[in-house]
Amino acid sequence: MLLVSVEQSMTNVEVNGWRAGFKSISFIKLIRTVGTRHLDLAQAKNLVDELILGHPFTLAFETESDAVTFVRVADELGVLASWPAPRRSRC
Q1: Total structural domains in the chain?
Q2: Of 32, 53, 72, 74, which one is least surrounded by beta carbons within 10 A?
Q3: How far is CA 16 from CA 70, 86, in A?
Q4: What is the pLDDT of residues 40-86, one digit of tens each?
Q5: Is residue 3 domain-resident?
Q6: Sheet bearing 57-61, strands edge to edge
Q7: pTM for the complete prediction?
Q8: Confidence of residue 6 (pLDDT cuts 50, 70, 90)
Q9: What CATH number does residue 55 fall under?
Q10: CA–CA distance, 1 with 66 (Å, rounded to integer)
Q11: Residue 50 within any structural domain of the chain
């Protein structure tokens, strides 16, 4: 799983996959505009390419509001995302 700026004090969203009709270009734009403005086009595209290959990733958002907006819009674009990101145990 790819991790992008995951921090304890931030709100994390896990992006797990995509559905038929997935709008990848719109999702790249979303990644760059909602709460993760530090990602450039190449970084956002790489995340989407990895997602298409079946590799989930986690994004960190400064505000809970940004995370909620991201998950809602991502769902409209055919992306499977969850907030809050489930905590994984380290074994």
Answers
A1: 1
A2: 53
A3: 14, 11
A4: 999 999 999 999 999 999 998 888 999 999 999 999 999 999 987 55
A5: no
A6: 2-4, 57-61, 11-18, 79-82
A7: 0.80
A8: very low
A9: 3.30.1390.10
A10: 22
A11: yes
